[in-house]
Amino acid sequence: MGGWRIAGGEAVKLLFDTHTFVWWLLADGQLTRTARTALDDPANRLYVSAVVGWEIATKHRIGKLPEGARVLGRLKELMPRLAIEPLPITLEHGVTAGSFQSTHRDPFDRMIAAQAQIENMAIVTGDRAFREFPVETLW
Questions:
Q1: What is the mean pLDDT of residues 16-20?
Q2: Which one of 24, 31, 78, 124 counts the least CB within 10 Å of its CB?
Q3: What is the DSSP letter of 133?
Q4: Helix-strand-coil percent breakdown of the chain, rounded to 5?
Q5: How far is the C-alpha of 133 from the C-alpha of 124, rounded, in Å?
Q6: Residue 43: inside a domain
Q7: Do residues 133 and 113 lie in contact, with contact meaning Cβ atoms separated by under 8 Å?
Q8: What percent of the chain has pLDDT over 70?
Q9: Lowest mean pLDDT among 23-27, 123-127, 132-136
Q10: How many domains does the chain contain in total?
Q11: Distance CA 15, CA 132 (A)
């Protein structure tokens, strides 16, 4: 868990992994207590990468994420209401994502890891694939 704010202490910047974002929005119950507490703490700053929208739309289109339609249809409405900040993809993010020496090939994960590293954020994820990258995770 590192030194991530749970209750009291210094606020941190948290970057959603795609599945974590979907589960959180749909109150799915798959989040750990640690993740939910950190995400629900109003002092922490929450971010969603542009790559999350891309991944949700892609997986929904190919039938791997049926619940994606519920999320995509309400993104513009939900993000400001839930105080979630969008994180655009920059050229620096792209170069870093492509330069990681990891063997992990998923472009969505590589981009989220690059953004977390560059922007000094913790990725809220239970996905062990992120262990291959030089980033902090919270789960």
A1: 96
A2: 78
A3: S
A4: 50, 15, 40
A5: 14
A6: yes
A7: yes
A8: 94
A9: 23-27
A10: 1
A11: 17
